[in-house]
Design goal:
The complex is a heterodimer of chains A (165) and B (499). Chain A has helices at 2-28, 33-52, 59-79, 87-109, 115-140, 142-161. Chain A is mainly α. In chain A, α3 (59-79) runs antiparallel to α6 (142-161). Chain A is globular and about 45 Å long. Chain B contains 23 helices and twelve strands. The chains are: A mainly alpha (165), B alpha/beta (499).
């Protein structure tokens, strides 16, 4: 049960984080296509880094880095609204955030007897994350960007810290 | 055939990893094609985009589930059924849209989006399928290697989209089909298939103009109940842009399947939006138009001022307007008066040192987040900082503010957003056009008489209705402004459009 929950909530976390980056860039930097594709590319590159070096990483550090990079990005963006000169810094932070997205799958794979269920459960969480992120952003705007990733991260961290059940 | 397999060996790729690379690449290209075609075929709102993304990713879940149930042999059989669907992907979406045209609301959503699983599940099957075959003890290493290969494919796909933008229209569609065929080759490893696929691809290229024209004309003719001929169609970075012509040679511009410009009404719209404020303001030297990529509002403004800056997000709209709408924008006559900047309006304003006498915001209705951000009090606050002394701001209200109108919710909220930022404002509308307009300023007060005078001098025959600040206050009293913290209008407008 815990394994399924962790996998599902991780999917929600990835979607929330990804959509928060996207909406932050769109609202506080620029809506141009370049920022969107930069985000997609950096997210993918970060995940590839996570996959490549997962053996040398510590889960809690990578997960914390993921959320810390996001809030550092958000604070920088708040203080430098619509300033595209800082885009390269933002892209590095996005890449740092998504390392966990690569790390997660090989790390978690050893716990699943049937590997397709790892992808299935994570992806279902991702779908829920996208749906909720879109709707919550429409209703709460920047409020969503400030609170949601932190809340989902806390839930995930809490579940991971629980003893087996 | 041998060459293709040898090519994969150069990169030390097994057939499995080559398939994963191609699947990763095409899943990104498919997402792009779906986001271009689906909203344009239904209604281009944020909810449609959200539903497209949801069904796209749910399709992945279907694929992950099926991976545990299907063998590679069965997948090879399924390809026979999937082959036409993926080969004609954009036409299939359009035909589906036509089939579901009369179904409304939830049924439309369920029918249309469930059918999408056919497209999306295919590419997600391979990763878990190959991983289910490997030694359990080495699973972590295999997950790392295989998933990495798929993600590198996705990076490649993203780069293809980015780089192919300025190329031939619909080039991404052909790249998608080509990669799908390569995937089939690696999957089936059959020498006979290669020449067949090459022939099909060539035929597809040859019949593309006909199929594209036929399906788009069918869609627009059914949607607008008038026979329309396709003149041009492109994928811009933001929209699918279509130019069509009716039997009287009237041209229409459609962005994502929605009427954007070309009718007499819309010509009046630009007259009311650009000329009335400029006539009222007088002695104008610098005008900024945000949006208005057809450049028709710039033409109207050019009658009063010789220094116009147009900021448009989508270069495709400007290109199309320059090529097909010269009779409206008279670009050849006004070229020396206008400076076109391709940028996001709010980004441009915040990074420009210039100030303007008049700022006109001419963006589409608030059906998606990107556009709605330009209807917020936060954005109007940025606009205010870029106005010269006595400068004025003008925008349309996406509807009519008058109380006898059926739906005044959005106009009320737009006006409330403006009223939160500016001290003086006035709303005017005309009987022949749905949206009303608002002129706002801190230090320049526009009166009812000034607008009536402009209407008379410009020879506008349609009856005008004008609301001054006190009257507006009574109507918008209970409304809340649109802000970066509250963009719920996107949701309500999108749901209304789907209904």
């Amino acid at each position: 049960m815990k394994l399924i929950l962790i996998t599902f909530v991780t999917g929600v976390f990835f979607a929330t984080l990804q959509m928060s980056y996207f909406f932050s860039l769109q609202t506080l930097l620029t809506s141009t296509i370049l920022s969107y594709f930069s985000l997609v590319l950096c997210w993918l590159i970060g995940a590839i880094v996570g996959l490549r070096f997962f053996k040398f990483m510590d889960e809690k550090i990578i997960l914390t880095l993921s959320i810390a990079a996001y809030y550092f990005f958000l604070i920088m963006l708040f203080f430098n609204k619509f300033n595209t000169i800082l885009l390269p810094v933002y892209l590095i932070l996005i890449t740092m955030s998504s390392i966990y997205a690569g790390y997660f799958f090989p790390f978690q794979s050893k716990f699943f007897k049937k590997i397709n269920y790892l992808f299935l459960i994570e992806n279902n969480g991702f779908v829920l994350g996208i749906l909720s992120a879109y709707i919550l952003f429409m209703f709460y705007g920047i409020g969503f960007l400030i609170f949601s990733p932190g809340v989902i991260f806390s839930i995930l961290f809490m579940i991971k810290s629980l003893r087996k059940w | 055939m041998v060459f293709i397999f040898k090519f994969s060996k150069i990169f030390h790729l097994s057939a499995d990893r080559a398939i994963l690379f191609l699947a990763g690449c095409n899943s990104i290209l498919l997402q792009y094609l779906l986001l271009k075609e689906l909203p344009a075929s239904i209604f281009p709102t944020e909810i449609t985009v959200l539903l497209t993304l949801t069904s796209y990713f749910l399709g992945f879940s279907v694929g992950y589930f099926l991976a545990g149930k299907l063998s590679l042999g069965k997948i090879k059989l399924i390809i026979i059924f999937l082959f036409p669907v993926h080969t004609f992907v954009i036409y299939v979406i359009r035909v589906l849209a036509l089939l579901f045209f009369r179904i409304a609301g939830l049924w439309l959503i369920l029918s249309f989006f469930t059918s999408l699983f056919i497209f999306c599940s295919f590419y997600s099957i391979f990763l878990p399928l190959f991983l289910l075959k490997v030694n359990r003890k080495k699973i972590q290493g295999f997950v790392s290697t295989f998933y990495k290969t798929e993600l590198i494919g996705s990076v490649f796909g993203s780069l293809l989209i980015l780089l192919s933008q300025p190329l031939v229209p619909y080039s991404i569609y052909f790249i998608y089909v080509l990669i799908f065929y390569l995937l089939i080759l690696f999957l089936l490893k059959n020498k006979v298939i290669l020449p067949i696929l090459i022939i099909i691809l060539i035929v597809l290229l040859l019949i593309f103009p006909y199929l594209n024209k036929t399906t788009l004309e069918l869609f627009y003719t059914k949607s607008y109940e008038e026979h329309l001929n396709l003149i041009d169609s492109i994928y811009s970075p933001y929209n699918r842009i279509d130019v069509l012509e009716d039997e009287k040679n009237h041209r229409y511009l459609f962005l994502d399947g929605i009427f954007y410009f070309g009718t007499k009404d819309l010509e009046d719209f630009n007259l009311y939006l650009a000329e009335i404020p400029l006539y009222v303001k007088k002695n104008v030297s610098d005008v900024l138009i945000i949006g208005g990529g057809t450049l028709s509002s710039a033409f109207h403004a050019s009658k009063y001022v010789s220094n116009i800056t147009v900021v448009e997000l989508d270069p495709g709209v400007i290109l199309t307007a320059s090529n097909h709408f010269k009779e409206f924008n008279h670009l050849d006559k006004i070229a020396d008066k206008i400076n076109i900047v391709v940028d996001d309006g709010k980004h441009y304003l915040m990074n420009s040192n210039r100030k303007f006498d008049v700022i006109i915001v001419d963006v589409p209705y608030p059906w998606n987040i990107q556009t709605t951000l330009l209807y917020t009090a936060d954005f109007y606050g940025i606009v205010k900082t870029k106005l010269k002394e006595n400068g004025i701001f003008v925008t349309h209200l996406s509807g009519n503010l008058h109380e006898n109108e059926i739906d005044t919710k959005i106009p009320k909220r737009i006006v409330k957003s403006v009223s939160k930022i500016f001290l003086n404002y006035i709303v005017y509308s005309f009987e022949n056009l749905r949206p009303g307009f608002i002129i706002a300023s801190d230090d320049f007060k526009v009166s009812r008489d000034m607008i009536y005078n402009a209407v008379n001098k410009l020879g506008i025959r349609a009856k005008a209705s004008i609301l001054e600040k006190e009257e507006i206050g009574k109507i918008t009293n209970s409304s809340s402004p649109i802000t970066f913290f509250n963009l719920d209008v996107v949701f309500t407008e999108s749901m209304l459009a789907i209904k």
